[in-house]
């Protein structure tokens, strides 16, 4: 069964024609060529495929594209060149929070979502904010510290 699904991806109107049960992650990566979101677990547990859908942080590996009709989707490619995205990426680099890089796009999306909703989070709130994301290399302390650094360095950005 083929259908048409219209949504906005990083500010651009998209018309997808195909299987509405196909995973959003596959459409983003394979059809649209945006490979920042990664496939880790395929079960919505690791956060490597995190995107923001209609203002909520979600795992794109378990969302059928048909559920995105009239949605607004934001991926790592949509935030990487914004002041907020650059602030987070810079803080991750400065704080040593990047090792292999596989989980980092999802971690950056979780940090972006957290700081947009809570510009001055406590350590516990940061840990809760990234609790849906798994990092097998760096561990969490450097990531938590880097998100705190992004909150501090970008204080004016997050209060918009």
Give a nutshell description of this structure:
This protein has 160 residues and is α+β, with helices and mostly antiparallel strands. It contains 7 helices and 5 strands; from the N terminus they run ββαβββαααααα.
Oligomer: single chain
| Rg, nearest Å | 15 Å
Q: What topology, given as strand order, has the largest sheet?
A: 2-1-5-3-4
Total helical elements: 7
Strand content: 15-25%
Strand segment tally: 5
What kind of sheet is the major sheet? 5 strands, mixed
* Helix percentage: 25-40%
Describe this structure in words.
By secondary structure, this protein is of the alpha+beta class. 39% of the residues lie in helices and 16% in strands. It is built from seven helices and five strands; from the N terminus they run E-E-H-E-E-E-H-H-H-H-H-H. The chain has helices spanning 24-31, 76-79, 83-94, 104-117, 123-129, 141-153, 155-158, and strands spanning 3-9, 12-18, 50-53, 56-59, 72-74. A five-stranded mixed sheet has the order 2-1-5-3-4. Helix 3 crosses helix 6 (141-153). It is globular. The protein starts with a strand and ends with a helix. The mean pLDDT is 94.
